[in-house]
């Protein structure tokens, strides 16, 4: 082998080996990039699918509430109205004072029941909630709680109010409604406060009660169906929900959503 | 001669930078990166001794021959941190044992340890590291990607693959035809300088962007 041939073999051979290494590195880097994009696409598809699934589940829930609301308004409230009328008639034709007083009392209870059923049916109906707006619907729900459970409620709004869009307002109302219902059902509080604070680019909702509370280290706040619904709705709103509770002190649900 | 000093300075500065960066990042470095740091520190010491040897005595073969086994152990341990197959103790021990036997045989039986580079062992070392690097890349391709960018170990392995692919041929062919090259051996030197600059500045760059690469 001549000197020049040796040099050529050496130079080209070494370059070839080095190029092999460089191409391997580039190939792996490109494959990893492709793999990552594929992973991202898959994740996005999964996210889209779960969002659609969640949305359709909530739509079905909303439709069920609407049907129940119509049933309560058109059927149960009507029947209660008829019973109330009959009790009035009974009171008018009562033979003695004791019977009259008893029938009037029944009619009065029936009037309260009709009011509660109507109020509940209104708040279960999404169309009604949307027509009234978020603020008025929350006030109406809290009024119902005050009347039905004798719990002191207060509601405050701060910051420059803005419209969130129909679907988002309805979802937000359902979150507040569920949180308040949970507080009443499980906490037996004396006081519930709901506050909305409109920030420059977010809305903070805070629902606090002074009820029994629970130990968050032993019971997961998200274990119930109600809480799961709250979390799903919050996720659809693109927000974060944070639940904190202390035994015998109370529970607070804080929701931050972008607006 | 000027070029020799410039190249040596670049290599030594790159090594020094990587080692200082290793000390700065010592709490964030993972075990495998610490091994690379130690490898670079020992390389710096070996290169400095070799440099002094060539300046003072025009001799440095003993240093490179001694360092090659240390380098083999360190890099095999590095790959055992990142490569699935080498994590298996039996496989790793077999490779280390085989390497040690080849080193002893090459240094004692086939060559004069004091005067000739142990190119037989270097060939085994080069082939091993090229294979380990390819094994790492195979594992990388098979793992589920959660990140859009490549880890520090991808780049360490990439640099090692480039260096050892080059070493495999340049040392094997280069040494066997070294005698016939006469004055043209300067080409071999240029190529070795180039790959050394690429390798050690490469390590320096990975340590420079270490936090970014690690956080991704």
Which descriptors apply to this entry?
heterodimer, A: alpha+beta, Heat Shock Protein 90, 6 helices, B: about 220 residues, mainly alpha, Rhopdopsin 7-helix transmembrane proteins, 9 helices
Give a verbal description of the structure.
The complex is a heterodimer of chains A (259) and B (216). Chain A has 259 residues and is of the alpha+beta class. Chain A has 2 domains: 1-124; 134-259, Heat Shock Protein 90 (2-Layer Sandwich). Chain A is 68% helix and 15% strand. Chain A has helices at 3-92, 97-124, 126-132, 134-149, 166-187, 225-236, and strands spanning 152-158, 191-198, 202-209, 240-246, 250-258. A 5-stranded mixed β-sheet of chain A has the order 1-2-3-5-4, with helices on one face. In chain A, a hairpin with a 3-residue loop joins β2 and β3. The radius of gyration of chain A is 31 Å and the shape is elongated. Chain B has a single domain (2-215), classed as Rhopdopsin 7-helix transmembrane proteins (Up-down Bundle). Chain B has 9 helices and no strands. Chain B has helices spanning 2-24, 31-57, 61-82, 84-87, 89-110, 119-142, 152-181, 185-208, 210-215. In chain B, α1 packs antiparallel against α2, α1 (2-24) runs parallel beside α8 and α2 packs antiparallel against α3. Classes of the chains: A alpha+beta (259), B mainly alpha (216). At the A-B interface, α1 of A face α6, α7 and α8 of B.
């Amino acid at each position: 082998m001549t000197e020049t041939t040796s040099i050529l073999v050496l130079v080209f051979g070494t370059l070839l080996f080095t190029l092999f290494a460089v191409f391997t590195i580039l190939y792996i880097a490109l494959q990893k990039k492709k793999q990552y994009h594929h992973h991202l696409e898959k994740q996005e598809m999964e996210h889209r699918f779960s969002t659609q699934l969640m949305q359709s589940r909530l739509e079905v829930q909303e439709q069920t509430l609407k049907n129940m609301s119509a049933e309560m308004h058109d059927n149960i409230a009507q029947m209660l109205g008829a019973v109330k009328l009959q009790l009035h008639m009974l009171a008018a034709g009562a033979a003695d004072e004791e019977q009259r007083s008893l029938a009037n009392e029944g009619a009065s209870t029936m009037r309260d029941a009709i009011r509660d059923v109507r109020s509940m049916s209104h708040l279960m109906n999404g169309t009604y909630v949307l027509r009234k707006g978020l603020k008025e619907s929350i006030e109406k729900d809290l009024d119902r709680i005050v009347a039905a459970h004798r719990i002191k409620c207060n509601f405050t709004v701060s910051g420059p109010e803005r419209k969130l869009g129909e679907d988002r307002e309805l979802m937000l109302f359902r979150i507040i409604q569920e949180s308040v219902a949970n507080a009443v059902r499980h906490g037996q509080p004396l006081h519930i406060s709901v506050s909305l604070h409109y920030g420059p680019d977010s809305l903070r909702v805070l629902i606090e009660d002074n009820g029994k509370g629970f130990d968050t280290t032993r019971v997961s706040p998200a274990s119930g169906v109600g809480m799961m619904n709250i979390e799903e709705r919050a996720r659809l709103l693109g927000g974060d929900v944070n639940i904190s509770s202390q035994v015998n002190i109370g529970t607070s649900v804080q929701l931050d959503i972008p607006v | 001669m000027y070029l020799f000093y410039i190249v040596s300075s670049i290599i030594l500065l790159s090594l020094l930078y990587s080692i200082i960066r290793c000390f700065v990042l010592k709490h964030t470095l993972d075990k495998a990166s610490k091994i690379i740091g130690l490898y670079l520190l020992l390389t710096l010491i070996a290169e400095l001794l070799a440099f002094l040897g060539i300046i003072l005595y025009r001799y440095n073969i003993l240093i490179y021959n001694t360092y090659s086994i240390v380098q083999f152990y360190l890099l095999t341990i590095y790959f055992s941190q990142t490569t699935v197959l080498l994590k298996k103790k039996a496989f790793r021990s077999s490779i280390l044992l085989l390497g040690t036997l080849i080193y002893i045989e090459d240094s004692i039986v086939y060559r004069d340890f004091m005067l000739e580079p142990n190119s037989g062992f270097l060939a085994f070392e080069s082939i091993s590291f090229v294979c380990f690097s390819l094994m790492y890349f195979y594992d990388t391709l098979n793992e589920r990607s959660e990140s859009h960018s490549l880890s520090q170990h991808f780049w360490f392995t990439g640099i090692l693959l480039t260096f050892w692919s080059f070493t495999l041929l340049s040392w094997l062919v280069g040494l066997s035809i070294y005698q016939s090259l006469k004055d043209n051996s300067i080409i071999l030197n240029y190529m070795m300088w180039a790959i050394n600059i690429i390798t050690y500045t490469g390590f320096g760059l990975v340590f420079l962007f270490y936090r970014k690469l690690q956080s991704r």
